[in-house]
From TrEMBL:
Residues covered by the Peptidase S9 prolyl oligopeptidase catalytic domain: 464-671
One GO process term, biological-process aspect: proteolysis
UniProt keyword Cell division, yes or no: no
Keywords: Hydrolase, Protease, Serine protease
UniProt xrefs under InterPro entries: 6-blade_b-propeller_TolB-like, AB_hydrolase_fold, Peptidase_S9_cat, WD40
Entry coiled-coil feature ranges: none
Protein name listed in UniProt: Acyl-peptide hydrolase
GO MF: serine-type endopeptidase activity
Length: 678
């Protein structure tokens, strides 16, 4: 429950004025929030299946379960309450069977529920987690992808080991290029394969074999005779980070033929309901740090390929054909909002809504899912700065929010208001977009401390979305500024590509321009400016500490500070030399040092809190340790918070979200008077 902070006893670092009966959002309130995503709407009943997420305070974990909204009764009902978790609801083409994945004690299976009788048939328990579920046109089977272990024989003998001996664990022999992955750890030898699961059988049928992984979206041909899928089925795929091709798998012969092949990430194959067309996303890879994914349609009869979004200059994400094959619905991010667009086959385009909401646990990233019924009704999680995504529908041009899972709690909490901010970069006058969260009961005649929060990526974007973490900062009296500096996506190719072989660099001036714009309004205490950011935002944050000493304190999460060592320890190391840093470190050492924040340690004086997961393999904790030790050598105040077992996301255990924010609040308060005293 939100803690009541009475103004007379809440002198902690704030100028917020709070009535005795008001409640503000606090770090422990993560456990009160609910989120909606993974929607699937029935073409028959308009019932909407979705996944409801929340946090379990006792077991310290996120829980996810499939629910349904019954259109006729306007009631919500859980579909699966026996499992530890359930997700990926997917209705059969005739709408009579709901497939979904459930997990019990770490094991997963696919469930088939009859939507009329309620009877559920379960598959056998799988050895790995199934993904990319896709129904066959005859409603009899579901195709999916799943990892298959491929044990390797050790090249050395192990002689002389007695029976029942208690020897040390065997050493791990690593020969693969991709040997560890953030969130998964050190990888077991194997590959992701395609399977078929009958609605009446127990065990699935494996369709693909071999060393190649098939991890992308899959789609049945209209006649059910084959499956389209995306994969890297070529030599040395580990060195081609983005390049995926689209193939066709014949279900009778198991022969695989190429359908779309080029140097670029062709993905999301989606067959039209009439079987005539194949929609997919992709681009011709030119080696840039970022490129928009376009929407393509291939006529499977003539072979002609059309680009439907040539004039959009935004990156296309999720796809869904209209029920009559006349056009395609798709999502894309635009200036921090996730839009739902529709294009007919001639490329005529329109926007249906810009309110798609993303299920994020802390910060305001864009993104969101949708599903469109045959009558045109759209179901989606709705974006709202004052609420996590709730279930909503768009019908006949009108949006209706159906759920209110957060109302019981958030209706009692006063949140900060969110306002858009545009400023001109101090580097080149480019317009830079951002948002401001004001403390509850904000009074512009008073002075407030400022927190600048920098998003990760760096090719990502923030927007006007609910953010528990930043609202909690506002609840403690901070004005919070978050922006989309150069390199952010959703503003076109050219803006994102400004950081090609030039990152980090002028993001500093972009972000300072937003701070200056707020200072000019007169309500910012200039001696109490703070900076925080994670991942790519942590890189930019540490870079800015070498450029300015205007911040009273910094909170840096999971940064990369030494680009030479970062490239050689990150799980994505094959990608960075080609797309980010203009060559391998030993080939272009000067460039790597020029853009490494640690190069500028002599300029850094700001007390810095560092927070990283100990199992982070994207920006490994060794980068944090380097910065910590460099700060110590420079006699700059610092502290390092290591999150046990946590990967790059830092979200697997909700209590770490709470503790991360508590540490940040502690650190900022500790140095609230530093610049004033100086």
């Amino acid at each position: 429950m939100a803690t009541i902070w009475v103004a007379a006893t809440c002198a902690l670092n704030t100028d917020v004025v709070q009535a005795a009966n008001e409640q503000y959002l606090q770090p422990e309130d993560y456990f009160e929030l609910k989120y909606v995503d993974q929607v699937d709407v029935s073409n028959v009943s308009n019932d909407i299946y979705f996944v409801k997420h929340q946090f379990d305070r006792v077991n310290d974990q996120k829980t996810s379960h499939v629910w349904v909204y019954h259109q006729a009764t306007e009631k919500f009902q859980p579909i699966d309450i026996q499992s530890d978790a359930s997700f990926t609801p997917l209705l059969s083409p005739n709408q009579n069977i709901l497939a979904f994945v459930s997990v019990v004690d770490g094991q997963a299976r696919i469930n088939f529920k009859d939507t009329q009788t309620g009877h559920i048939h379960h598959s056998s328990w799988y050895p790995s987690m199934p993904s990319n579920l896709t129904w066959s046109p005859d409603n009899q089977t579901v195709a999916f992808t799943m990892f298959v272990e491929q044990p390797k024989t050790l090249p050395i003998p192990l002689e002389g080991k007695p029976d029942n001996a208690n020897w040390a664990p065997a050493p791990k022999l690593i020969e693969s290029t991709r040997y560890r992955l953030n969130g998964a750890g050190y990888l077991t030898p194997g590959a992701i394969q395609i399977f078929l699961q009958s609605t009446t059988a127990s065990a699935p049928q494996q369709l693909t074999k071999g060393e190649h992984s098939h991890s992308g979206k899959i789609s049945f041909a209209q006649d059910g005779g084959g499956i389209y899928f995306s994969a890297k089925r070529y030599a040395s795929p580990e060195f081609s980070h983005f390049n995926t091709d689209i193939h066709y798998l014949d279900l009778k012969t198991h022969a695989i033929t190429s359908v779309v092949e080029r140097d670029g990430p062709d993905d999301m194959p989606t067959v039209s309901p009439d079987g005539r067309y194949l929609a997919y996303t992709g681009y011709d890879d030119n080696g840039m740090i970022y490129q928009n994914k376009a929407l393509y349609v291939k006529d499977l009869k003539t072979g002609k390929v059309s680009v439907l979004t040539a004039g959009l200059d935004r990156s296309v994400a999720r796809l869904q054909w209209r029920h009559d094959s006349a056009g395609i619905y798709f999502s894309y991010d635009d200036q921090g909002k996730t839009q739902l667009g529709y294009s007919d086959l001639a490329g005529d385009f329109k926007v249906l809504t810009d309110r798609l909401g993303n299920m994020t646990s802390g910060r305001p990233y864009a993104g969101g899912e949708f599903d469109v019924a045959s009558n045109g009704m759209v179901a989606f999680p709705i974006a709202n700065t004052q609420r996590p995504p709730e279930l909503a529908v768009l019908s006949e041009g009108k949006i209706s929010t159906l759920s209110n899972f957060n109302g019981k709690f958030l209706d009692t909490v006063t949140l900060g208001q969110v306002e858009a901010l545009w400023s001109k970069s101090k580097y080149d006058d480019r317009p830079i977009h951002g948002w401001v969260i004001y403390p509850p009961n904000f009074d512009k005649s008073k002075k407030y401390p400022l927190v600048l929060e920098i998003h990760g990526g760096p090719m990502a974007n923030y927007g006007p979305h609910f953010t528990a973490e930043l609202q909690m900062l506002a609840a403690r009296g901070y004005v919070v500024l978050y922006m989309n500096p150069r390199g952010s996506d959703s503003y076109g190719n050219e803006f994102a590509q400004l950081i090609h072989n030039n990152f980090p660099n002028h993001e500093h001036e972009d972000l300072i321009s937003g701070i200056d714009a707020l200072i000019k309004r007169g309500f910012i205490d200039e001696t109490r400016q703070y900076i925080m950011g994670g991942s790519g935002g942590g890189m930019i944050g540490t870079w800015m500490l070498g450029k300015t000493q205007q911040f009273a304190a910094a909170a840096i999460m999971k940064p990369a500070v030494n680009l030479y060592s970062f490239v050689l320890t990150s799980d994505f190391y094959p990608m960075f030399p080609k797309y980010w840093f203009n060559g391998k470190p030993w080939e272009n050492t000067e460039h790597y040092l020029k853009h490494s924040p640690i190069t500028y340690m002599n300029n850094i004086k700001t007390p810095s809190l560092l927070i990283t997961g100990e199992a982070d393999y994207r920006t490994p904790i060794s980068e944090t340790e380097q910065f910590y030790q460099a700060l110590k050598l420079q006699n700059v105040d610092t502290a390092m918070v290591r999150m046990p077992h946590m990967s790059h996301a830092l979200t697997a255990r909700p209590s770490y979200l709470q503790q991360k924010l508590e540490y940040i609040l502690w650190w900022f308060d500790k140095y609230k008077d530093r610049l004033e005293e100086k």
